[in-house]
Amino acid sequence: MPGRIGVAASSVTGLLILWIIAATLTADPQILPQPFALVGPFWAELQSGELLFHLGHTLLRVIWAFGLAMTLGLALGLAMGRSEGLNRWLDPWLVIFLNLPALVLIVLCYLWIGLTETAAIVAVTLNKVPNVTTVIREGARALSPDLDAMAQVYRMPPLARFRHVVLPQLAPFLAAAARSGVAVIWKIVLVVEFLGRSNGIGFQIHLYFQLFDVGMVLVYAFSFIAVMLAVEWLILQPWERRSRRWRSA
Length: 249
Fold this sequence. Notes:
Layout: H1 2-26, H2 39-48, H3 50-82, H4 84-99, H5 102-113, H6 117-141, H7 145-153, H8 158-196, H9 201-210, H10 214-245
């Protein structure tokens, strides 16, 4: 663990050095300010409560969309992976939604439902469900038939079979879908907020984009990136390592 943390810290430090060099060569803070020049604006936004207010709204949307996308994707992927007939019927739908641009779904949801919170959550969820479904479907196809046979021999109830036989085998695929899901969902949430919400990180980026304030755009962008990196390193990566541990036992 210490070695992994050291490598991550070195990597981030390298990126910071590249940023400093690029800002120095640009020599124009209106285009690319130095990283230390963002400390003051960041602290001011934090003290005023604006940063935490908008960060909270964005996180809430990410949590809702993530939970819905993972639940629906798990159900659809498991059903399609276990039933070849259902997979043949739904696979064209899956391909269509996988290739439908996120922007199109967002605009359609706003036009059909209105500029509401429900439309925002639905748009983000619909953009992510096909990806989760695809990953879980492959996991369902890889389930061991021997373990299924064992569960039938011991007459395990459906819920117990899902919990003790199916879910442990799907855990690595769930972890992979969750990691990619968080990375994609929060980016789509920012687009949704940019286009049609009155709060959130995306709304603030839109505001400062109109003011041509690169520094404040970076303050809000990197604030949320820092939160997502913490989720990735402290929750998702440990969960993924734990979910794969039983395979090497």
